[in-house]
Task: inverse folding
DNA sequence: CTGAAAGCGCTAACAT
DNA sequence: ATGTTAGCGCTTTCAG
């Protein structure tokens, strides 16, 4: 618990110089920098983030707000953000809203306002005007990931294009009776992704001159069991069973594969299935999918923040590109039977 | 961004009184408390955690260190810890070591030492002596979850008993050719759970007078694909195929169910399978398992910390009980064939 | 029960 | 390039 004063004494300089030498801000000769580093090392000196924050007004800490944690997408985004932040010497403090309304309110009204974070990353959350503006009033940069927030810079995939690509893959193989398992209306509140993906699916169908059949759409909850249920209904239909399914998430797609198996249908011989995500289990199930890269999204969010937070351009340039996605063809899709 | 001074002025008291009124520490008359609360509310005052921490030496923030994030167990522990902390007005800052050796070093040598946290929760991590002692030298309480750390208070399940229970369930149904899929040696470094579970399995067998057959053990990596591979080997054996499998994790157990299906074996008619965890997918797969309760573990870790951190007994009493576990029988286990 | 005042440990002008 | 110094916004003795 050595303080800056002791380091200064040991290095034979002033505390101001120690501060400059250690933080990299301001001019210090190479020689003194070394002396200071040495002294600091000897004493196991680590700056007190509180004192530093209080004096400088910068905490070197960012808040990440998520609606769930126990979910592939969110966990991956956080992992990406965390490691990018660590590299920059930043901490990540986590706000998980799983608990419900009360938690959300106290996080936005209290926790995020107590000057503990320099910026906020909101993942998969549609923030209210009030939430956004209270953050902005404090001068805290806010950035969204996966779910656009009006008036806020957000990293977000082109969900229409993604779903279109998945559907086109199937169309290209010759399928026309293509079903879609997407999010129900309840998911459209915080994400708009369900309807966007449905739109992408429909556009692809229409552009290919294929009629969109309402009976071939099933809402589900993005989970594996949800996908299983929906697929059972779709594939159990006595008339005009679809020859392919595009599911809005890999978990639902995997559920669909299991449903098909349970019905005695072979994938992809009897039915082709494509998902969206590239979930960690997708390789195992041989699922064809459109990959998104949530870890990368977390990193990109941090990169964007750093540009706002760090005046010096010591952060690698990262253009404001749209989020990438990529069709990954595995063994769950093939030409339709006959 | 109103400061304490403005609140004091508006309430007609000194800043000292505001501090006392808002923090609950020290004597304040009910009347002034109300006045202050009113003034603070009017001004949307939120205390600056940095100034408060610097002055008081307490950050009201705890660090949580995990080896992975994208995993059911860790995510659940964090969720539990997070919500318990939120209730106490604490923040949670997350340190994810997924990146590798470098990250770990900088987290322990730098990040955790910069006085940003009052305490540390290490989840599923075996800390080195150096790591533990540098934390203790700073006076930071440290508590382990899921993986005992020598010399550190840890919440940890009785893995021997858990595996024994799973095995006894099978023995009780009449199985004797019971295979075990457990962690390989590489997992024994940070967790000792693999070998403990194996011991529990063996003890149960021995106590039942059943010989432990080396050929009936397969190491795997705790994942679904890993369990699938292992089960394929076990169940594909031409001689003396096991009639049951106890897997050290639900993911491996689910992999085993899928492996059995792919071999044309029926679960549980041809083979019974039991896991350990009660993973979110286990209900869907009808998996019999021994549940552990990771969310609760996160909460308990926080409760234990609060006792150390908060002198006042405003934290509900929670005895130092061993972690609970519970056999949940679903449809993946039954009497052996014939 | 309340107020005055001395820091908490560092950073950032400003001066040199 | 380095030192001096005045705070950052609170909490906490210590008086009263």
Result:
């Amino acid at each position: 618990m050595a303080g800056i004063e002791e380091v200064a004494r040991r290095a034979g300089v002033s505390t101001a110089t120690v501060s400059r030498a250690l933080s990299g801000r301001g001019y210090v000769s190479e020689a003194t920098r070394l002396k200071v580093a040495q002294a600091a090392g000897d004493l196991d000196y680590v700056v007190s983030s509180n004192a530093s924050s209080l004096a400088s007004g910068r905490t070197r800490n960012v808040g990440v707000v998520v609606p769930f944690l126990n979910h592939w997408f969110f966990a991956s985004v956080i992992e990406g953000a965390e490691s990018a932040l660590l590299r920059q010497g930043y901490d990540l403090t986590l706000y998980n809203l799983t608990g419900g309304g009360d938690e959300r309110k106290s996080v936005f009204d209290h926790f995020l306002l107590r000057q503990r974070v320099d910026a906020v990353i909101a993942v998969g959350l549609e923030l209210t005007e009030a939430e956004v503006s209270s953050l902005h009033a404090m001068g805290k940069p806010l950035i969204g990931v996966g779910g656009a927030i009006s008036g806020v810079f957000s990293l977000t995939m082109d969900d229409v294009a993604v779903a279109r690509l998945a559907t086109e893959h199937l169309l290209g193989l010759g399928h026309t009776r293509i079903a879609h398992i997407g999010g129900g209306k309840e998911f459209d509140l915080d994400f708009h992704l369900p309807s966007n993906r449905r739109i992408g699916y429909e556009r692809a169908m229409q552009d290919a001159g294929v009629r969109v059949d309402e009976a071939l759409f099933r809402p589900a909850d993005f989970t594996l069991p949800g996908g299983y249920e929906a697929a059972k209904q779709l594939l159990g239909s006595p008339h005009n069973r679809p020859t392919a399914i595009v599911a809005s998430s890999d978990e639902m797609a995997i559920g669909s594969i299991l449903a098909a198996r349970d019905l005695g249908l072979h994938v992809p011989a009897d039915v082709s299935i494509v998902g969206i995500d590239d979930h960690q289990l997708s390789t195992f199930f041989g699922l064809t999918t459109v990959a998104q890269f949530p870890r990368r999204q977390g990193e990109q969010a941090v990169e964007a923040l750093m540009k706002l937070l760090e005046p010096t351009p010591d952060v690698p340039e990262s253009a404001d590109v749209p989020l990438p996605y990529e069709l990954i063809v595995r063994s769950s899709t093939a030409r339709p039977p006959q």
Notes: The two ends of chain B are 75 Å apart (CA to CA). Residues 13-17, 20, 26-29, 32, 51, 53-57, 115 of chain B lie near DNA strand C (CB under 10 Å from a C1').
